[in-house]
From TrEMBL:
This is Helicase ATP-binding domain-containing protein. InterPro entries: DEAD/DEAH_box_helicase_dom (IPR011545), Helicase_ATP-bd (IPR014001), P-loop_NTPase (IPR027417). Residues 1-117 form the Helicase ATP-binding domain. One of its GO terms (molecular function) is DNA binding. Keywords: DNA-binding, Isomerase, Nucleus. One of its GO terms (biological process) is double-strand break repair via homologous recombination.
Length: 117
């Protein structure tokens, strides 16, 4: 909203990487109640999402990193022109969730890859 008011962009989008579906659902609901257009990958209409018709776009690390459709979307002209920032929700846990003890699988392996993309 700040970028739009400052004239930087007609349709600014903020990407939100979030670990929990329930958390994303609550945040989309609250943002909508505040008049902010918010959508969630895999829940809202794909055409609306890919055309950048939202101000906040929520998705799990797995959705952003493992689904080629969503990764490619971020490289599209619409998103290259409109993404104003990326927020990693629960960032204080990402390093832990992406790691595992020797011989074990990480709890959320994709969190270890968030910074590499």
């Amino acid at each position: 909203m700040v970028a739009k008011k400052m004239g930087h962009n007609d349709n600014p989008v903020v990407i939100v990487v979030s670990p929990l579906v329930a958390l994303m659902e609550d945040q989309v609901k609250e943002a909508t109640e505040m008049g902010i257009t918010a959508m969630q990958l895999g829940v809202h209409d794909e055409v609306d999402i890919t055309s950048g018709r939202c101000q906040l776009l929520f998705g799990s690390p797995e959705s952003w990193l493992l689904n080629k459709k969503w990764r490619d979307m971020l490289g599209s002209d619409v998103f290259q022109a409109n993404v104003m920032g990326i927020v990693v929700d629960e960032v204080h846990l990402t390093y832990k969730w992406g790691q595992a003890a020797k011989g074990q699988t990480p709890f959320r392996e994709s969190f270890a890859e968030v910074g590499r993309t």
